[in-house]
């Protein structure tokens, strides 16, 4: 498989070819990164050819065809870039310079590879790829750098669209805050809804395109806030209009507007990679990440006794132990857990003292006995830290499990609704105190879970959950007070219902989060949530208990298949392989669909499930493309089987996509569609379980037989997308952006130069 040419700070250089791009160009999205892959592959093919001693006529013709194809592709690519420049005057100067450089580099490559008609291409009388050893490398560097710059500049247009959309939403929100009549409110809210849908689509696409998993999680959290707050804004505003003199109604509405503005601001921070007033983002430090870093430093002493000071190690341990005070000082930590954490903290200090003592001696006198003593000290220190990690994990997760079980009946919320309708202010005050206590418990639970979440995306999910409980608790209280003051108000009752549902939904999400945290700790999985954050806000249609019972067996089969796929992907040495990545993504999404059959997880409605099925099918199609790429690297006798399986996968994914997109009216038809989507997903997962070991076997077979795989061929024809996408992007100049540029790179037909 061709590896990605890009890194977070730009395009990485190739040691064999000397390729590299402008280090100042940071590539933050997968679309830009993946668009560059075929370009790097093609140029690498050219550069590798210049060093081959044997040059047959067929080889010379192939080199010339590749050089011409690169030049033609660059020409079409530059045409799109120039059109973008004309449509966006603020980028025109930079884009024009990058386009000129790219065109010049493409022409140079075409000239250097014009060798097929020459009798002696090695002759000094003709400057070619063979005589000018560095010329083609320089041209390739310039081409890669300029194409990258065009793509990154085009990406700014996407960012600009999101900012413009956010500004429209903010302007309409300001109008909504000031309205004084229902008629005016309904009219403006309709406009607001359309603007929020546009913003959701733009940010959803951006979220899926982001390379940084931490930013993806932050974006998902912000978008979830906006989705939930849209309904809250509707009912809170209507309540305020119905009861304009009610202070609690005003407080309730102001809280929603404030939270939405914060979420909108965070989206823009993520998209533009900036902070207000130039502040740097302070990443929350968890006990898990602290222990991981500490252990890495300790184990590094085996290789180098001098790479850090004892003060550094002592400081790192102090920081970890300070964080354990969040557990030992918590009123909700059991006495047993508190005592164990304190004992292990004391032991960790002692183990580090012993380690430092042996380490200092070993620096002065590196004897065999001292090195053996150092190894023992390292092992004992790391073992102690592992036990501390296990203890804080147990403390946090057992507390969470107990609290979630205790609050599943939602008794306090039910009581607030009843006493509010009765107009019983005294009883409402009593239950708001109980809700405040419950909020403090859940906030503390989130803080402790963050320490043991295990991954940055899950840490961010814990922080988001903490914020949600912090904000939603007081909002429920103000909504309940409003209802108690106006017990006959239907809109006040509806408003309280909306905020209570948000609380219940967050509690439900916490159960899934707890399961994911436990899965990470036990080494099973930890990325199930990432594919589900771009769910559309749709009418909530859920399966009833009878339907869940009917589909339970199919759901269980799907669950078992996700475990099988996870087991197969873990066997791969290269976890960054495209086939592994797509397989893991599909397994994660299938697991979410299994949770839906149980009435759990992030997929709340049937429409959520259908949307997830579409994304799952798209990921399957990407996997099929990766299989085609692999088929070009395996031996000829293995190729037919692999291609047959890839075509089978494409067919099954198309069927699933058609099923997910088909309309279904009525309860019975909707359930039939759910059943069909789960069944087709199961069939794809069954095929995936067969594909993964086959691909792994073929890769090992090729490595054993050849020492390495065949080099990836030049850009291949994408027969499905060629033509239509390119033509449509030329027709619609106003929509120029990354997508149209991608089409002009990926849709090029290049001949295989064997």
Automatic annotation (TrEMBL):
Residues of the signal peptide: none
GO biological process, one term: Rho protein signal transduction
InterPro entries noted in UniProt: Alpha-catenin/vinculin-like_sf (IPR036723), Alpha_catenin (IPR001033), CTNNAL1 (IPR030045), Vinculin/catenin (IPR006077)
Keyword set, alphabetical order: Cytoplasm
Sequence ranges of Low complexity compositional bias: 7-18
Main location: cytoplasm
Region of interest called Disordered, as start-end residue ranges on this chain: 1-20
Cellular compartment(s): Cytoplasm
Pfam family, one: Vinculin
Transmembrane regions listed in the UniProt entry: none
Molecular function terms, GO-annotated: actin filament binding; cadherin binding
CC terms in the record's Gene Ontology section: cytoplasm
Family assignment from sequence similarity: Belongs to the vinculin/alpha-catenin family.
Name the UniProt record assigns to this protein: Alpha-catulin
Native organism: Emberiza fucata
